[in-house]
Amino acid sequence: MGSAPPVLETLGLTGGYGKNVIVEGVNISVGEGEVVALVGPNGSGKSTLLKSIYGVATVLGGRVLFRGSDVTKLPPERKTAIGMNYVPQTENIFPDLTVRENLEMGAYLVRDESLVRDSMETVFSIFPQLRGFQNVLAGSLSGGQQRMLAVGRALMTRPKLLLLDEPTAGLAPKIALELLDLLVNVREEAGVSILIVEQHARRALELADRGYVLVSGRIAAEGDGKSLLAREDLQKLFLGITG
Amino acid sequence: MALDARFLGVLVVAIVIAALAGFMAGRAAAPEAPAPEAPAEGTPTVTTVTETVTKYIREGTALPEEIQIGLAIAVSGGYAVDGPRRLNGALLAIKEMNELLERVGAPFRFVPVHEDTRASPEEAVNVINRFISQGIQVVVGPLSTSETAAVLPIVNREKVVVISPSSTGQAAAQPDDYVFRAPPPDTRQGPALAQIIKSLGYEKLVIIARNDDYGKGLANLVADTLKQLGGSVEMILYDPNKPDLTAEVNTLAVKVQDFGADEKTAVLIIAFDTDGLQILEKASKIDVLNKVRWFGPDALGRKTFVEREDIARFLLGVNFLGTKPAIARNPVTEQFEKAYREEYGEDPTPYAYYAYDAAWLAMLSVLAAGKYDGEAIKNVLPVVAFHFIGATGHKILDENGDAAVADYTLFAVVQTPDGFDFKDVGVWRSATEQIVWFES
Amino acid sequence: MVEAVSGILVQYLILFAAYAIMSLSFNMEYGFGGIPNFGKVLFVGLGAYTFGALAAWITLGIGTSRLGLEIVAEDEPAYCTGTAKYVFSQIVEGGVMTPLEITGITLLAVVAAIAVGAVGGVVASYPAVRLRGDFLAITLLAMGEIVRLIVYNSPWPVCAFDGLSGIPSPFSVMGLEHNISVAVVSLATLAAVYIFVSRATNSPWGRALKAVRDNEIAAMVYGYNPARIRLQALAVGSGLAGLAGALLVIYSGNVNAISFKPDKTFEVIAAVMLGGSANNLGALLGAAIVAGLLVFLNVSSLRALGIDLPASVGQALPYMKFTIIGLTIILVLLYRPQGVLPEKPLKTPLIEWLKRKLGRK
Amino acid sequence: MSAVLYGVLAAFFNGLLVGSLYGLMALGLTLIYRVTKIPNFAFAEYITYGAYAAVAASFVIDPVNSAALLVAGILFATSAGAVIALASDELVFKPLWRRGSEVLQLLVASIGVGLVLRYSLLGAAALTGGKYLEVRFPVTYQTVFSVGGLASITTAHLLAITSMVLFAIVLHLLFTRTRLGKAMRATASNPTLAQITGINVILVRRITWLMAGALASFAGFTYSYYNPVNPESGWITLLWIFSAAIMGGFTFYGVLLSGLLLGIAENVVGFLANYYLGIGSEYNPVIALVTLVTVLMVRPEGLIRMESLVVARRV
Q1: What percent of chain B has pLDDT over 90?
Q2: In whole angstroms, what is the distance from residue C176 CA to residue C157 CA?
Q3: Which domain holds residue C126?
Q4: CB A13 within 8 A of CB A49
Q5: Cα–Cα distance between B163 and B178 in angstroms, integer?
Q6: What DSSP character marks residue A158?
Q7: Strand ranges for B13-156 from DSSP E
Q8: B309 touches chain D (CB under 8 A)
Q9: Strand, coil or helix: what is A91?
Q10: Which single residue of A34, A197, C145, C224 has CA 20 to 30 Å from A242?
């Protein structure tokens, strides 16, 4: 991974809600420009890990390093400000705002108008569908478009790291796979590292540079996507989730 | 001032006691016989009256140490503005009486027990029921006719005396009951107002009145009488709880205009404080309504109206004439106004006078009865009232137990060096059906 | 002292029963069915007007003919006249009518009150099918005010602002202690209503109601007709509200539209929220709290309990009463957000026992 | 022209004034509702407190100087209303919202807040001698011009109508054109996400309450400039305020429109019904409420749908 520190590194991260521990002693890292997939069975704590990293869930122990500096205690909006962004699994858009306003709100912390316009152009070039719906209320978009908007909104701050929590949940398989393919564009166009929690584990691992398998709140395996997919002991697991 | 209060209080008690003596002596005889020993002639000295009272009290009565006077007076729900002032009138009376009792060394005191009926008959029933179970035998209140009518069957059943300081509607007029009412009922003021208006040469009248027992009841009586006398009447009734009354004033102006707005057209306003203030203010800004003469009943005789310069000027300009059911001002009235101002920092509103009198009547009747018992109090009350002169004058009661004075003082607005004030300008004699003006 | 306490307790029990019935009915509509019936007081009022007018009309008709009187009333019902009040007082005191007749009239009027309330509920379901949430709440509130303003201003059906008063009580005619009898009957009625409502809400119909509340589309998938279920809930709830209205009139002997301002609805909603929404025992508890605050936070009640307030506090109490009620609402919501008794599947021993009892029949 | 025509004109003018007052009052309620989703029944009390605070200004400023007094009245009123509104949120609504209370719980809480505020004021007014049971701003309105001696436009008309239109436009622009306004809408739409995107939702919420409180009490000031106010005045008007807000579909222009519609329906229809059918003016409130129910039956989302003002609808 070279001499530069990884974009994200967790050291023995323990997190949960209130006093309930959901993930325990997790060590993961995301390098510059990497797409890292986080897979595992339902209830294994993938989403909670993401939320603990971002600060939406409670960190009960361990540390989160972002580009080498400790950000464990920073509130979510501060993390947004320093270049980390997060797309929740649900309720990830402002349904009562237009598409354009959603993107504007995504760049709420960016004061420079021209930067906002550039970011918006980037988003529209990644998700061309959204361009035509600029003045439509986000709540009336289709499911897939809403996810695109959610990702686009997160890109507005030009983050270094994007945390995606099951961006395809609830979408029709065909649309889900289309969306996943678009994520590669996201890396290309926006130059962002991505940590993605995904239920379409097989496809995610195919796309990802590396992957982690989380079982019962602990890392059960790690490696590059293809080698993980090749491991027989994990086969059943992936098949189980992808259906 | 303190001396004045006590003196007048003592005077009133003395009259009552004398009356009581007369009543006891001639119980079998006509109960309304005037008391022979009444010290009406000459002025009794404080000492002798106090001695009499003291003696009477020492000689032992069955009165408890704490005599509860129930005050079922609404202070919210439409009565938020005037209710507390009426309550203040009653509380002032109780305070004065207790000062007197302390002075003469009486072993008992009157204790006010106030509860808010929220101007709702349903809550009035709850309040009366609570009072009854608490053992209260005499109640001042409730304020409105609907509340009074609602508690009537209960107090008759439980034999508890109720004196309403402001119910005037017909719905609560019943003979031989436990409900007494301090102000004269509309049945007298209504026709009197109509006759006064007619006798001054007005034949077309537009009435703007509260759509409640007081306003509508009085308005109907005025309208009926005036129509019988050959006049024509238009009526506007408004919901007193409505936040804005401009629409009503507009309608009033249109009806006045339709009548020709000439020297035969007049307006009668039957309103309380908030609504009255609003109507007068808005009317003052409409030309047509400045051209005709305005009349009003007792409720319009409120100091607030003359304190506001624009309204006072308007009333002066339209030659406002009001009627109030009382004999001319008496020392008690002045004493009450003075004490009220000192206690509460403002002038009493018209019905605070009645509340004050109702409380005095209640307490004097308890003393006269000699025991704290509703039935006994009910029996002496008419006699006490007959011999009572309060802040609203003589309280003779009619067969329904309602105040029965039928003469009306006429008052107008005058300009004084300090601003504006009401002034009594004449009296309507019901016997002769004529106005006697005080000055030419 | 004992007498004073018992008198106030009797009033408390009567108001508790009335508020509890209203709360149970609101709870069924809102807690279980998700219908914010802010017009609750409208249906209570409909019951009260119906009961009062019908009972007064029949009683007066029989009473006048027996007394050989004739009442002439212009522009208003005969029972609004002074003569009618005289007739009523004669009926109570003079044995003009038999207790059985008065009881029969009362029961008939109660049934009519429930029926008219229920019909009102059916009418109200028209907006309830079209509107949701706050919009529906305000619409029903407005409908309540429309009816109240009309009834308050027109001599029909209950004598406008004067109100219809002096309606003879069957208990007085029977020579019973009026308030105590009303308390007993009210509590018995409440018990019956409670059993009825708990059975209804625990039945398949109750589950359908909850299903409609939680997910209308899913409920439709399972074959329920949401509009029909809402209509049924409103009809039953409003019928119960009408019953509460009738009880209030039996107790006070008078009915006046001014008593049915939206404030009463708010008191009922507060009761349900305090006790715990979608929990019938919670509705009872909430009603107990609200009625308790209304009855006991008064000078005379406190005196009866031996608490003698200084005069200044006594004068402030009418205002403090509602400030305290407001604070209670706020504090309960802050510290017991789901109400004192939160929503749960109803399986209390009492109900189980009652169910067994009733099931055996 | 006959008296009736002047009467109708007067009723129309009056409807404009009353309707503007309803609209003005409903704007603040709408603001709170849009941002925090609270149907705030305590809103009525902010109006009443505003009126009382405006009158309190006359204790400080000599009433002779009417221009200064007007300014002071507005300042006193708006600051008092803003503070009380903010306090009620900080102490009651925000803690409840954090806990995820449902709408009806918030509504009941607002009834509680309203009771506390209203009865405290009522008690204070009654127990300090009664002089404050009813207050009136010392500077009162003047007639600007009058038609036929019957229908007139007064300074109260000008104040109420201008301020309502102005505030409605300002609020609408705020919501659709400014960063703060969009942040407010974003907060309303999805508070968690708003926080993630860096919007200080707590600050946005505070600004909202301050603005709404100030608006409410400005309306209170206008009311006391036009009519006497007592501690129950706001409460009595609340149903009309809610009607205007709901009928307007909780949009600022919609509120403006429905306030006027309610006011004019109540007055013009009321006048005609009274004049030609002999229906007493005590039924005027019924006319307004029937208008509300009818409008909602025909257009269940209110006169103006929320999104229709913001954007083109999706094709």
Answers
A1: 37
A2: 29
A3: 2-261
A4: yes
A5: 8
A6: -
A7: 66-72, 109-115, 138-140
A8: no
A9: coil
A10: A34
Of residues D151, D230, D240, nearest to B81 (C-beta): D230
Q: How many domains does chain C have?
A: 1
**D196·A56 Cβ contact <8 A:** yes
Partners of residue A152 in chain D, C-beta under 8 Å: none
* Closest to A36 in 3D by CA, of A213, A168, A239, A208: A208
How far, in whole angstroms, is CA B307 from its chain's centroid?
Answer: 22
Positive/negative CA dihedral, A208, A209, A215, A221? positive
pLDDT score at B345: 86
Around D89, how many Cα atoms within 13 Å sit in the side-chain half-sphere? Answer: 27
Which residues have C-beta within 8 Å of that of residue C215, sequence separation ≥ 6?
A: none
> What DSSP designation does A135 have?
T
Contact B152 C161 (CB under 8 A): no
| Interface contact B153-C253, CB threshold 8 A | yes
Query: Residue C9: inside a domain, yes or no?
Result: yes
Per-residue pLDDT, D206? 96
Name the least confident of A192-196, A229-233, C287-291: A229-233
Q: Is C316 an 8 Å CB contact of chain B? A: no
Q: Which amino acid is at B206?
A: V
Q: Is C22 among the domain residues? A: yes
D292:C142 CB<8 A: yes
Which domains does chain B carry?
60-183+328-394 (3.40.50.2300), 187-327+408-437 (3.40.50.2300)
What is the sign, positive or negative, of the torsion defined by CA atoms of D293, D299, D300, D301?
A: negative
Q: Please tell me the distance from the alpha carbon of residue D314 to that of residue A142, in angstroms, as a whole number.
A: 11
Helices A99-106, A143-155: crossing angle, 10 deg rounding: 30
* Residue-wise pLDDT tens digits, D61-71: 887 888 899 99
Q: Quick check: B143 and B79 in contact, CB under 8 A?
A: yes
Which phi and psi angles does C111 have, rounded to 5°? -60, -45
Report how far residue D130's alpha carbon sits from residue D121's, in angstroms, rounded to the nearest whole number.
Answer: 12
- Per-residue model confidence (pLDDT) at position B49: 43
For residues B157 and C32, is the Cβ–Cβ distance under 8 A?
Answer: no
Contacts of C337 in chain D (CB under 8 A): 96, 99, 101, 105
Residue A45 structure tokens: 């704590």
Contact B126, C11 (CB under 8 A): yes
B314 close to B285: Cβ distance less than 8 angstroms = no
Least Cα distance to D222 among D22, D43, D18, D21 occurs for: D21
Q: What 8-state DSSP symbol labels residue B269?
A: E
Closest chain D residue to C270, measured at CA: D108
Q: What is the pLDDT of residue B299?
A: 82
Q: For position D315, what pLDDT does the model report?
A: 31
C153 in helix, strand or coil?
A: helix
pLDDT tier at B326, thresholds 50, 70, 90: low
Overall size of chain B counted in residues:
440
**pTM (two decimals):** 0.88
D231 touches chain C (CB under 8 A): no
Q: Distance from C128 to chain D by nearest Cα, in Å?
A: 10
| ipTM reported for the complex, 2 dp | 0.86
DSSP D54-116: HHHHHHHS-TTSHHHHHHHHHHHHHHHHHHHHHHHIIIIIHHHHHTT--HHHHHHHHHHHHHH
Domain-located, residue C335: no
CA dist., res. D310 & res. D292, Å (int):
24
Tokens for A180?
Answer: 């996943």
CATH numbers and ranges of domains, chain D: 3-309 (1.10.3470)
C182 inside domain: yes
Place of tokens 């269940």: D300
Cα–Cα distance for residue pair C286/C340, rounded to 1 Å: 8
Does A91 sit within 8 Å of D192, measured CB to CB?
yes
DSSP β-ladder status, A193-197 and A161-165: parallel
Write out chain C residues lying below 8 Å of B120, CB-based: 256, 258-259
